[in-house]
Amino acid sequence: MQIKYKTDTVALKKIMIEQGISTYRELSNRTNINRNTISQIMKGSIQPSAEAMRQLVSVLKIPPAEAGIIFFSPDLRTA
User: What whole-number distance in Å separates Cα of residue 7 and Cα of residue 67?
Assistant: First the structure.
């Protein structure tokens, strides 16, 4: 059985607000990640690539331990 992961989008949105980033367009501009990709990540449609995770962690100033929890939460619905 393969473990699938799901990004905690609620936590990402909360951090966006705390950092003063109010739109996906602004997050896209700061991270250099395509706006459509940001939208899909935030909807939970896709998991971000390693590079996208790195950019999000850097721009949103997410501590490493918290980033692990946000990006690598087990998706219990598929277990």
Answer: 10
Q: Which CATH architecture has domain 5-78?
A: Orthogonal Bundle (1.10)
Is 37 exposed, middle or buried (CB count within 10 Å of its CB: 0-12, 13-18, 19+)? middle
Q: Distance (Å, rounded) from C-alpha 12 to C-alpha 71?
A: 9
**In the chain, pLDDT over 70 holds for what percent of residues?**
90
| Domain residue ranges of the chain, discontinuous segments joined by + | 5-78
Taking a C-beta distance cutoff of 8 angstroms, is the pair 31, 41 a contact?
no
Q: Per-residue pLDDT tens for 2-26?
A: 658 889 999 999 999 999 999 999 9
Measured in whole angstroms, how far is the alpha carbon of residue 53 from the centre of its chain? Answer: 6
CA-to-CA separations, 54 to 23, 32, 50, in angstroms, rounded: 19, 11, 6
